[in-house]
Design brief:
Strand content of chain B: 25-35%
Oligomer: heterodimer
Number of helices of chain B: 6
GO molecular function, one term (chain B): hydrolase activity
Distance between the termini of chain B: 38 Å
Protein name (chain B): Calcineurin-like phosphoesterase domain-containing protein
Radius of gyration of chain B: 18 Å
Structural class of chain B: alpha/beta
Pfam family, one (chain B): Metallophos
Strand content of chain A: 15-25%
Largest sheet of chain B: 9 strands, mixed
Distance between the termini of chain A: 88 Å
CATH topology of the largest domain in chain A: Rossmann fold
Largest sheet of chain A: 8 strands, mixed
Organism (chain B): Glaciecola punicea ACAM 611
Helix content of chain B: 10-25%
Helix content of chain A: 40-55%
């Protein structure tokens, strides 16, 4: 955990009143390791002594975690010296980590200084895996330092004795603070902090973060009611060494799997000591892992690690990596966060980096020392991505980072929080509202919306109610409490469904229905599978058997290639910063020199075949593709804006009889496939600000995407239980989808709060109306329409994108009609005639 | 009964499909109902009224508008075909206590529907072995019309035909049962188009058995490939009619099995 650090620049010193005193036992311990207490570590101790909440921003390898714990270790040490018992000190410091695995890691790492200095304080970790015996023990006699996750913390806060457990709390450390920004888990965590503050306001908040674009907004997130904490910034002077790595002979036009460069990647792994191979999706991880092993004649120890794999499998890989037994691990964002993996010499990013800050994080995994430059290769999966790689490399050289502005908190978590409060103690509505306002993500929440969410939590909050209502909360003199034990139990089981929403376990069958759970897939993916379909999972090919009791059953298959090429896991959005950078890059041919020759050729080809997307005019291409017609808009506005535009345009196409089939989006463009061919004259009626008109709301609400958003909202807000009825086999045929509830609500209670929450949720995660309308207004009169005989060079990577949004409507029906036995049905008309004439 | 021109329009628009079952001409409507014109008969199956309010009792704050919606759709379909005899093929109420939770105006609409036709039969199912007297209409454990048995859960036809003890229960017009129309299973099926999977509630039609999809709003489906269907029919020998967005389709060979 602790490494030598040199060359640190400290800025933004908070005003310090009291002088911090470092006890001799700590000084001696540092000295024995030939370490010096760094200036920013000293500052962290001062901030604690002065009861100042602080955000420490430092690159990986700066000994961030020790800096975070040092003040607490010193304070508890002093208290023990004064003769206070562990029990009297109670729970002094609470450490919150986004990852379970991180809490174990920190637990191990804290043991070293504590035992070596004989400090005598108690440390324990508490996560979903902690046994109920240990939980009980921790509840009775809390450790001085408790390491936990946001979900486990929320569960503890739902206990009736929560106030007692946290009565002595002095410090809360939020590790990897940057990973909480702009996420539902971040909102969830900020609510947990607000609840802690309500129970006991006498603790300070310490955030530990990687380098971010907007330290101020992160400090505001961490602070009470959005009051920013102090910031301590430690910068590294060395810049990472970055290079693009491709195959010299061939770079594919499309696809995201980068298998073409497997030889080059393997050669790089072979040269380095230990490498981390980062990919963007789990499907990529599976494929790259397979591809590397196909080439791996040396038998280098290469492993795979991603969030869908089972806990056992991941732990095995973690141990082997820590023991230095592996040469490379192929991984997704699951390894981005700070677990200490020992010495990594090289990071290989396969596929487009998607964001500069994320890329920095990943690169930081190499060479856990601040003073030495990290070494990293970027492997673009197709020619388009090489543009993105170059743009990212340039940004890092210039020291620029990207970050999205903060968003208001997600509303679907509020009912969970309300329930959590009343489970702990009977509460009145206004005090809960006050607590919600104290969470920085929710400081702008209006009382009306809160009241509606409260009423939903209480009894569903429906406009038309039966005379005999069913209450989840009961009221007594203005104080609300859960109606019965079942309500409490159900709530506690559902805390933290945020991360797991919509995932199914995968069982690898040996015989009949027996087998081992090997991991999880998205429900969305599982629903697409038919019996006999094969897919890559956990490094092998599995054949789908069926879904039984909410578990995907699959047996190992013999086929060489899977039928279903990929599953969508952990799609990452491109940062708007990078999208802009790519568009600029295309428009400045002088900068192409740094691109591989193949890519330059491709750009020239695009120029002569169609045109290059420019800043002044929106390029629209139209061509036949796969039995339908594709229209492609090069917007460069990012996934969300393209998604919004796709929904709006296809809705209009549906109304005008163009029979749209599906649309797919990438970060750069939107492609729509339709039965009817779009012509230049049509564009003015499709690509126009009109489509943002009054019907927008209706259009949005009907989209299948909104239904997915509703599903998430329904689970998180507690409308339905996840795995509803999963344990009752006889009920299987009567489990129904949330789509039905959604339709019913829209029809009979269109103002219901959950519909508002669904819209908000879609706006947060899927849509960007603002950018879409800006785009429409800017380009509705200035576009370049190219009708082509086949996809242009630049179109290929976009139309090959697997993720497409299906349109349920005339298009699909048209296809069904083609496929169904229409002829026969017509013959049957005679039958009908006979039938009506009394036959 | 419905006019020929209207029927033709429905057919051309994929909203109905005519079938032959056990020697009888019938119509399958994309709304999930079966019409037997010769008998002036319309069949709904598995209404599961008040399922929403049933679930709210278990701390699921679901919207309870499902009965309202189911009744509304029933009314629309009844108006379309104007049949004299309506049969609900069991599981019409979700549970024994459903009536107590039903909103008064919903009960009024339900009884108005019953009164609007000359004959209404509630075939009883496992969810509703007793239908409270507040709800109008006849009750029957099954209906026997010509050579067909209309029943909620499938019966062993051969055993009934053989056992003379059961004969008195059956109507006299025809003694031999050659087929049965059943509910209970909520069949659904999927069809793989080029790059998408279309799933919908489905009718399954074999030589001597016809499975009805569930009509109730909050009813899900059981995939016809599920093992529960194995004793009932051989997938290779039945026709599957898939309903999707108010339309109904027959696929002969390409249903994924």
């Amino acid at each position: 955990m602790i490494k030598e650090i040199h060359d640190l620049l400290i800025t933004d010193t908070p005003v310090v009143v009291k002088r911090a005193f470092i006890p001799s036992v700590f000084k001696a311990w540092f000295a024995a390791r030939h370490w010096k207490i760094r200036p920013y570590q000293q500052k962290m101790v001062s901030a604690f002594v002065n009861q100042q909440s602080t955000l420490l921003i430092a690159p990986t390898g700066a000994g961030k975690t020790l800096s975070g714990f040092l003040p607490s270790l010193i304070d508890i040490h002093k208290l023990l010296e004064k003769g206070k018992s562990n029990k009297a000190i109670g729970l002094h410091t609470l450490y919150i980590s986004p990852l379970k695995a991180l809490t174990y890691d920190i637990n191990r790492n804290l043991e070293m200084p504590i035992s070596e200095m004989a400090l005598g304080m108690t440390v324990a970790s508490r996560t979903g895996d902690t046994t109920s015996y240990q939980r009980q023990k921790q509840r009775k006699l809390p450790p001085n330092i408790l390491l936990t996750t946001p979900e486990s913390l929320m569960l503890m806060l739902s206990y009736t004795d929560a106030a007692r457990i946290f009565a002595n709390l002095k410090c809360v450390i939020v590790d990897e603070t940057h990973s909480f920004a702009n996420s539902k888990r971040g909102d969830f965590t900020s609510l947990a902090l607000a609840r802690l503050y309500w129970l006991n306001p006498h603790f300070i908040r310490v955030g530990l973060s990687a380098t971010v674009a907007h330290p101020d907004s992160l400090a505001a997130w961490l602070g009470v009611t959005g009051q920013p904490t102090g910031i301590i910034l430690a910068k590294s002077r060395v810049k990472p060494r970055l290079k693009m790595l491709t195959n010299k002979e061939y770079i594919p036009f499309g696809g995201y799997m980068a298998k073409y460069a497997k030889k080059e990647i393997l050669a790089a792994i072979s040269k380095a000591g230990t490498s981390l191979v980062f990919v963007n999706t789990r499907a990529q991880a599976e494929l790259i892992f397979q591809a590397l092993w196909e080439e791996n004649s040396e038998g280098l120890a290469i492993a795979i690690y991603h969030g869908s794999l089972s806990k056992e499998q991941r732990q095995k890989t973690e141990k082997m990596m820590a023991a230095g037994k592996l040469r490379a691990v192929v991984t997704t964002s699951a390894l981005e966060l700070g677990i200490d993996w020992g010495d990594v010499d090289l990071v290989i990013q396969v596929g487009a980096p998607k964001g500069v800050s994320r890329l920095m994080q990943r690169i930081g995994r190499a060479n856990h020392r601040m003073d030495e430059p990290s070494k990293a290769y970027l492997v673009p999966a197709n020619r388009f991505e090489s543009l993105e790689c170059l743009a990212a490399i340039k940004a890092i050289k210039k020291g620029e980072l990207d970050g999205e502005p903060p968003m208001p908190g997600a509303l679907d978590i509020i009912p969970q929080f309300i329930m959590n409060c009343v489970c702990s103690e009977p509460s009145d509505m206004h005090s809960i509202y006050q607590q919600v306002l104290n969470a920085s993500s929710y400081s702008g929440l209006d009382l009306d919306t809160f009241k509606q969410l409260f009423s939903f939590t209480q009894d569903g909050g429906y406009a038309l109610q039966a005379y005999e209502r069913y209450f989840r909360l009961v009221q007594d003199k203005g104080l609300y409490s859960p109606a019965n034990k079942r309500v409490i139990m159900r709530h506690r089981q559902n805390i933290g469904t945020i991360v797991e929403a919509g995932r199914l376990k995968v069982k690898r069958l040996r015989r009949s229905h027996q087998g081992k759970i090997v991991g999880e897939v998205e429900e969305y993916f599982a629903q697409q599978l038919c019996k006999g379909d094969s897919f890559y999972f956990a490094g092998e090919i599995l054949v789908f058997e069926g879904i039984r009791d909410m578990i995907v059953e699959a047996r190992p298959g013999k086929a060489k290639e899977p039928k279903i090429p990929s599953f969508q896991g952990g799609q990452m959005p491109l940062s708007t910063y990078l999208a802009d950078a790519v568009r600029k890059l295309i428009n400045v041919p002088e900068s192409w020199q740094e691109l591989p020759k193949l890519v330059r050729d491709w750009l020239h080809l695009q120029q002569s075949f169609s045109a290059l997307p420019s800043m002044e005019k929106l390029l629209i291409e139209q061509f036949p593709f796969r039995g339908a017609f594709t229209t492609l808009f090069y917007t460069f506005e990012g996934r969300k804006a393209n998604q919004t535009l796709g929904m709006l345009i296809t809705r209009r196409m549906e109304n005008r009889g163009f029979k749209p089939l599906s649309f797919s989006i990438t970060d750069y463009g939107l492609s729509i496939s339709s039965v009817i061919q779009i012509e230049k004259g049509h564009i003015t009626e499709l690509f126009t600000p009109d489509i943002l008109g009054d019907e927008l709301e209706d259009w949005m609400l009907e989209a299948s995407m909104l239904k997915r958003s509703f599903r998430q909202v329904a689970v998180i807000s507690g409308l339905i239980e996840q795995q509803y009825h999963s344990n009752k086999k006889t009920m299987r045929q009567v489990t129904f989808s949330t789509d039905l509830i959604y339709d019913t609500l829209r029809q009979y209670d269109p103002d219901h709060i959950l519909l508002k929450v669904t819209r908000d949720n879609a706006q947060r995660e899927l849509l960007d109306i603002e950018r879409t309308s800006a785009l429409l207004f800017r380009y509705c009169d200035s576009f370049l329409f190219n009708a082509l005989e086949k996809p242009s060079p630049m179109a290929i990577p976009i139309v090959l994108s697997v993720r497409s949004e299906l349109i349920t409507g005339a298009g699909t029906q048209a296809l069904l009609e083609q496929a169904s036995l229409y002829q026969e049905a017509e013959l049957m008309l005679d039958d009908v005639r006979a039938l009506l004439q009394g036959d | 009964m419905i006019e020929l021109t209207a029927l033709k329009a429905l057919l051309m628009n994929h909203q109905i499909i005519p079938i032959k079952f056990a020697g009888h001409r019938m119509l399958l409507d994309a709304g999930g109902v079966l019409i037997w014109p010769q008998q002036d008969l319309l069949i709904f199956s598995d209404l599961h009224l008040e399922k929403g309010s049933f679930l709210t009792q278990f701390a699921n704050p679901l919207p309870r508008f499902d009965s309202k919606d189911t009744l509304k759709r029933m009314q629309l379909i009844m108006a379309r075909y104007d049949c004299g005899h309506i049969v609900c093929l069991g599981d019409s109420l979700h549970d024994g206590n459903a009536l107590a939770r039903m909103q008064p105006d919903d009960l009024v609409s339900l009884n108005a529907l019953v009164k609007s036709v000359p004959k209404w039969t509630w075939v009883l199912g496992n969810h509703d072995p007793d239908i409270p007297p507040e709800i109008l209409g006849d009750r029957a454990p099954f209906l026997h019309i010509q050579n067909l048995l209309l029943v909620h859960e499938p019966e062993d036809i051969n055993a009934i035909n053989k056992k003379s003890s059961l004969k008195p229960l059956l109507s006299k017009e025809a003694s031999k049962i050659e087929g049965q129309i059943i509910g209970h299973y909520h069949p659904k099926s999927s069809y793989r188009l080029a790059n998408r999977k279309v799933t919908g509630k489905s009718f399954v039609c074999g030589d001597d058995i016809l499975l009805m999809p569930a009509f109730g709003k909050y009813t899900g489906g059981l995939d016809i490939k599920d093992g529960a269907f194995e004793p009932l029919f051989n997938l290779k020998k039945v026709l599957v009619y898939l309903t999707y967005h108010h339309k109904i389709y027959l696929f002969m060979s390409k249903i994924k099995r």
